[in-house]
Amino acid sequence: MRASALRWLAAGAALFLASCAFITVNVYFPEKEVKKAFKALDEKYLKPAEEPKEGETPAPADALPPASPEPPPPASPGVP
Q1: Confidence at residue 49, expressed as pLDDT on a 0 to 100 scale
Q2: Does residue 50 sit within a domain?
Q3: How far is CA 9 from CA 1, 20, 21, 67, in A?
Q4: Any domain includes 58
Q5: Which of 14, 51, 52, 63 could form a disulfide with 58 if both were Cys (CB 3.0 to 4.6 A apart)?
């Protein structure tokens, strides 16, 4: 009885592992678009920055606007 149950368990485990082995995920990456995006990133980050002309201040390319200061938390009623 015990050997029979062990055989069924082994067969089930083998089937489970075999079923996992045949799963395929197909992802489509359009080659032209990927190359175009890579080239744009290459140009943006790997080329040396141009020197500013005399009298000009360099502007950061990816500058974020300054963050506004957080307002103080509202006062709780009844607290002096």
Answers
A1: 62
A2: no
A3: 12, 17, 19, 62
A4: no
A5: 52
Domain assignment present for residue 66? The answer is: no
Task: Give the C-alpha separation, 44 to 60, whole Å.
Answer: 12
Structural domain range at position 29: 2-45
Number of domains into which the chain is organized = 1
CB 32 within 8 A of CB 26: no
List Cβ neighbours of 61 (8 Å cut-off, separation of 6 or more): 44
Task: Output b/e per residue, 28-62; b: 16+ Cβ within 10 A.
Answer: eeeeeeeeeeeeeeeeeeeeeeeeeeeeeeeeeee
Rounded to the nearest 5 degrees, what angle is found at the Cα of 28, between the Cα atoms of 24 and 31? Answer: 140
79 within some domain:
no
Site of tokens 């920055």: 49
